[in-house]
Design brief:
Layout lengths: L3 H5 L5 E3 L7 H4 L13 E4 L3 H14 L2 E5 L12 E5 L6 E4 L4 E5 L4 H10 L2 E2 L10 H6 L6 H6 L6 E7 L5 E5 L5 H13 L5 E8 L1 E2 L10 E10 L3 H10 L7 E9 L10 E9 L3 H13 L3 H4 L2 E8 L8 H4 L4 E9 L4 H17 L1 H4 L3 E6 L3 H9 L12 E9 L5 H21 L23 H14 L15
Parallel strand pairs: 2-4, 3-4
Antiparallel strand pairs: 1-2, 5-6, 6-10, 7-11, 8-9, 8-10, 12-14, 12-15, 13-14, 13-17, 16-18, 17-18
Helix pairs in contact: 7-16, 8-12, 12-15
The structure holds flavin-adenine dinucleotide (FAD).
InterPro entries: FAD-bd_PCMH (IPR016166), FAD-bd_PCMH-like_sf (IPR036318), FAD-bd_PCMH_sub2 (IPR016169), FAD-linked_Oxidoreductase (IPR050416), Oxid_FAD_bind_N (IPR006094), Oxy_OxRdtase_FAD_BS (IPR006093)
Protein name: FAD-binding PCMH-type domain-containing protein
GO molecular function: FAD binding; oxidoreductase activity
Length: 479
């Protein structure tokens, strides 16, 4: 069997063969160290032909191909992995007439936003600029208040182009006449990991001017900071902002005070309310609610600013850092009662007390949005697998620790807080739900898709990735 260097010599692939002394972080860019080991080989293609060569090599060597773009998902990399680093697929091509953009397989949210804003456009973005657009849409793509205007990221996708596991270059779009291609398109929108190496995909774009923002690009942001002891009062106020008006994004973020704060490590609650429209509208919605309560009296600090559109990624900058064992544990619900949010907050606080290694950066968030557009899009895009389009509430425990021995306690916390956050829906007979974008293995698949969806998803995977050459989360038991 050929050695890798001579195998790839006739291609434009770069290859890296890590050894036991290679620092994994210097060769793979990755958000979390969970499930991260040395791969058999890293292949960095420049062209589709390079990708086809990588597929042939992986077949010869019995390796699993894992495509990598933003590196923000917890997916397994080990000595059976051919890590296909798509970093060179950075095309961004705007079509103003059709109001679409073609996005290379590794383009990040921030790169796309920066480019689109030059033409006065935007699309549906994650809350992290470092996440790739391809990775975002493959698991659905919830986009905060932008989803209250344009639905999910998958609702805005019009076509995918890429290389199949059999080495065929294909393009599939929403109006594909071949039922096999149409089914592939639909499943790529929401359950698409491991079906295609996406070299580019196209999305709808929207005019920023239509949002009617102050100074053309400024979002209205009200921010209050509270000590942890007033969690009940903060949640009572938050509930008054529900059901959330379109374009509004109220969010509770629970963090630990930084080392230079008067009480380092103390629980702090940041309540932010962002409005994706003119400040006059925002004030009309928020100010009367504030005036009808005592909320300002409990705040340590408060400010109202006009923040540039690009600031939507600022909130997650701290959590974007690479390294450490990190994961997201998200619960999507119809409602959270005040006592549920307070119980979840107390469980988060307890984690910091019991596991000092996880205290500084494990954060807990709760937010709501208006799901009308997401629900309406679902009536049209009914084959794109995404459950619970009517669930307007999100709770997310982001865990971050550094010592392997903290794992058991952190996992217990993740289970507990997820159960707490699902208890109100569960009492009303609703099953739990999460975001497929946060799957770490197949243990939560039933929280991302219905049984009927899973039948369709598995059928499409059996056609396009029959021998699991591409890493497939549905087959990943996490062991
Ligand atoms: C801080 C943070 C914030 C986030 N915010 C949001 C959010 O607001 N909304 C939301 O819905 N999700 C969010 N996510 C989840 C995120 O969208 C997913 O984890 C996404 O899959 C990450 O994509 P990536 O390319 O960055 O990661 P990677 O680990 O590089 O890729 C993730 C998966 O997608 C596959 N993949 C990526 N690119 C390609 C491609 N071109 N072709 C084929 N397969 C590909 C990979 O093989 C892998 O299975 C967030 C995650 C983090 C860590």
């Amino acid at each position: 069997m050929q050695d890798p260097r001579s195998f790839f010599a006739s291609t434009t692939n770069e290859i890296i063969i890590p050894t036991s002394t290679t620092d994994i972080h210097s060769v793979i860019t990755r958000w979390s160290d969970e499930r991260l080991q040395q791969p058999a080989i890293i292949v960095i293609p420049s062209t589709r032909e390079d990708i086809i060569a990588a597929i042939q090599y992986a077949r010869q060597k019995n390796l699993t191909i894992l495509a990598g773009a933003g590196g923000h998902k917890v997916v397994p990399v080990n000595d059976k992995t051919l890590y296909l680093d798509l970093r060179k697929f950075k095309k961004i091509e705007v079509n103003r007439e059709k109001a679409t953009v073609e996005i290379g397989g590794a383009v990040t949210n921030l790169e796309l936003m920066t480019e689109l804003l030059k033409d006065g456009f935007y699309t549906t973005y994650a809350n992290s600029g470092a996440v790739s657009m391809a990775g975002l849409v493959l698991g659905g793509g919830f986009c905060g208040a932008l989803s209250s205007i344009h639905g999910l990221a998958i609702d805005n996708v019009v076509a995918f182009e890429g290389v199949t596991a059999s080495g065929e270059v294909i393009k599939v779009d929403q109006s594909a006449s071949d039922p096999k291609h149409k089914a592939l398109f639909d499943i790529l929108c929401g359950a698409g990991y491991g079906l295609l190496v996406i070299t580019s995909h196209s999305m709808k774009i929207h005019k920023l001017s239509a949002l009617n923002l102050d100074d053309t690009d400024k979002l209205w942001v009200r921010k209050y900071t509270f000590p942890g002891k007033v969690i009940g009062e903060v949640v009572d106020f938050f509930q008054k902002l529900l059901p959330v008006k379109p374009k509004l994004m109220p969010l509770i973020l629970c963090v630990r005070a930084p080392p230079n704060a008067p009480f380092p490590g103390a629980p702090v609650i940041i309540l932010s309310i962002t409005y994706y429209g003119p400040s006059s509208e925002a004030s009309k919605i928020v100010d009367p609610i504030v005036a009808s309560t005592d909320i300002e009296k409990f705040a340590i600090a408060s400010e109202t600013t006009l923040a540039p559109f690009t600031s939507i990624f600022d909130g997650s900058k701290m959590i974007d850092a690479h390294g450490g064992f990190k994961a997201q544990h998200m619960s999507r619900a119809h409602s959270f009662s005040t006592s549920t949010i307070v119980s979840a907050f107390n469980r988060w606080k307890q984690l910091g007390e019991e596991v000092p290694d996880a205290r500084a950066f494990s954060v807990f968030l709760v937010w709501g949005y208006n799901p009308t557009a997401t629900i309406e899009n679902g009536l049209v895009n009914d084959k794109r697998p995404f459950i619970g389009r009517d669930r307007s509430m999100f709770g997310n425990a982001i865990t971050w620790y550094n010592k392997p021995e903290s794992k058991a306690a952190v996992e217990k916390y993740a289970t507990d807080i997820s159960e707490i956050l699902q208890q109100d829906d569960s009492r009303q007979g609703y099953p739990g739900a999460t975001l497929p974008n946060n799957f770490r293995d197949n243990s939560k698949v039933h929280l991302g898709y219905t049984d009927d969806m899973l039948v369709d998803i598995r059928r499409v995977h059996a056609v396009w990735n029959p021998d699991s050459l591409f890493y497939n989360v549905l087959e990943d038991s996490g062991t």
